[in-house]
Design brief:
- This protein has one domain (about 10-140): 60s Ribosomal Protein L30, Chain: A, CATH 3.30.1330.
- The chain starts with 5 loop residues before the first strand and ends with a strand.
- It is mostly beta strands.
- It contains one helix and nine strands.
- Bound molecules: zinc ion (ZN).
- The site of zinc ion has 3 residues, from strand 5.
Length: about 140
């Protein structure tokens, strides 16, 4: 366990047509946030996310190429091999209210999106490969 203290907080609007995960990465880099949490809501033109197959130890990519609500997108900011890493999960809904979701991936294209990000002050959260799960987990 790591005890953290709140640092700066940010509100950002992601523009129409932007790649959501890249926009979040840009927000993190621009403000030099090395650890924190973020959340976003809005709508997307296309959703791209991954499902982790626990048996095969690999991600399976899922793409839904239609307008969807971005019901929630929640994640954390850490570091892996010296680079900032955003671990984000998202849920999307179609016009019938049916929900899809998974580990947010590149090529989720924004229609409109509002982001809240909070930095953790004076802490670095590193990730390390975990043999049991095959994932790069928080090294805490
Ligand atoms: Zn994940």
């Amino acid at each position: 366990m790591v005890k953290v203290e709140s640092g700066r907080e940010f509100i950002e609007k992601v523009e129409y047509g932007k790649d959501l995960l890249r926009a979040l990465e840009n927000l993190v880099r621009k403000n030099e946030v090395s650890a924190g949490v973020l959340m976003a809501i809005g709508a997307v033109q296309k959703a791209s996310f991954k499902y982790y197959d626990q048996e095969r130890r690999e991600y399976v990519k899922i793409v839904i190429n239609e307008p969807l609500e971005l019901l929630s997108c929640i994640g954390n900011i850490s570091s892996f091999k010296g680079e900032p890493l955003i671990h984000c999960h998202a849920t999307f809904a179609n016009k019938n209210g049916e929900v899809y979701g998974g580990h947010l991936d590149y090529e989720t294209i924004v229609f409109s999106c509002e982001v809240y990000m909070k930095e953790f002050k004076d802490v670095k959260l590193e990730r390390k490969y975990d043999q049991i799960t095959g994932l790069n987990l928080l090294d805490i």
